[in-house]
Design a protein that fits this description.
The chain is 35% helix and 23% strand. By secondary structure, it is an alpha/beta fold. The protein has a single domain, classed as 3-Layer(aba) Sandwich (Rossmann fold). A ten-stranded mixed beta sheet has the order 1-3-2-4-5-12-11-10-7-8, with helices on both faces. Strands 6-9 form a two-stranded antiparallel ribbon. Helix 2 packs across helix 12.
Length: 335
């Protein structure tokens, strides 16, 4: 598909809408022409560049699908649910959403450990959202027409839901917070996978470059994973020697297709080019949603995003998030 022209963009602008859901009254009535995507916001009320980057990605995909949406007189609506701080979750039984996206967020992946307000990594939260979130994950997993893709905190929640890995705080021996450009190593299962094997072939390497920002590692609870659940990448090759840190996981694959249907990563592929992030930062700053300290800290990352690894990192980011979102939304619009 050719890139849209400026006139196309003006014509297709009405094909995308975003709604913030912090209380039941915020949930708009279902619209017969709306293709609705659910964004599970795990940021606990904190402004987050990753959240807005996902909104921008869905908007761009909707823009690219403008002609298809126009032919059927439909539009894409993104509903951003405040899960952890407002206890708002979608009801999959209503079949309102076929695509779910999960963000990063602060604190421990088990909300029962988040009992203090103390800086960035410590928060206080009500854990009552966890049981309905597990039910939502169960329902999405059982519905072959539904998909779920997550990053960072959502990755840890998926691991806990499946009981395949538990969070472990990165202590001083590991340097504490892992923040910046890092690498993941694709597993043998990933190299044989039709989707991720193609990524490895294009990079000519089993090592993929990622953007990390995490206090917790996810360590597998058992040597083997349940049938159908596939480890796609670890932090390093050391996983074969007992020091395993899981970083990518496929939970379900599309029926008769090459692409994952439920997949998550413990990194930030939603953070795209430095230019895109600079634009989002300025918008959040102008709205007063970032403190000066957070704004300056995020700006300091921009040179890192422009370094020599940007090309391979962006290619891996597309394969592990952007292209999956685009692929599923295209299928939904075409149905």
């Amino acid at each position: 598909m050719a890139d849209p022209t400026d006139s196309d963009k003006e014509s297709f602008a009405e094909r995308f809408d975003v709604v913030r859901v912090e209380r039941p009254s915020d949930l708009p009535p279902r619209h017969p022409r709306a293709v609705e995507v659910a964004l599970l916001d795990m940021n606990h009320g904190f402004p987050n560049v990753g959240h807005d980057a996902i909104v921008a990605l869905v908007r761009d995909v909707a823009l690219g699908l403008g002609p298809e949406l126009a032919r059927s007189d439909r539009f894409v609506r993104l509903l951003s649910y405040a899960v952890r701080d407002r206890l708002m979750l979608p009801d999959h039984a209503q079949r309102r959403h076929r695509l779910y996206l999960g963000t990063g967020g602060p604190g421990h992946h088990d909300p029962r450990h988040n009992t203090h307000d103390d800086g960035i990594i410590e928060i206080r939260e009500d854990p009552s959202w966890e049981a309905p979130l597990w039910r939502l994950f169960d329902e999405v997993a059982a519905d072959e027409d539904a998909s779920l893709f997550g990053v960072c905190h959502t990755f840890g929640l998926i691991c806990r839901w499946l009981r395949v890995a538990e969070p472990m705080l990165r202590g001083p021996e590991k340097g504490g917070l892992l923040n910046g450009i890092g690498t993941n190593v694709l597993t043998g299962e990933a190299l044989a996978h039709p989707w991720f094997g193609r990524l490895a072939a294009e990079l000519a390497s089993e090592v993929v470059t990622v953007l990390d920002s995490r206090y917790y590692d996810l360590v597998p609870t058992n040597e083997r994973f349940p049938e159908g659940i596939v480890p796609i990448a670890y932090e390093s090759k050391a996983h074969s020697h007992g020091d395993r840190v899981l970083t990518m996981l496929e939970v379900a694959r599309e029926r008769g297709a090459a692409a994952p249907r439920i997949f998550a990563v413990n990194s930030h592929p939603e953070i795209g080019t430095a230019e895109r992030i600079a634009e989002i930062l300025e918008r959040l700053h102008a709205r007063g949603e970032l403190t000066p300290d957070v704004y300056e800290a995020r700006k300091a990352m921009l040179p890192v995003l422009r370094d020599e690894s940007a090309g391979p990192r962006l290619r891996a980011a597309r394969a592990t998030f952007d292209d999956l979102v685009r692929h599923r939304l295209e299928l939904i619009v075409a149905a």
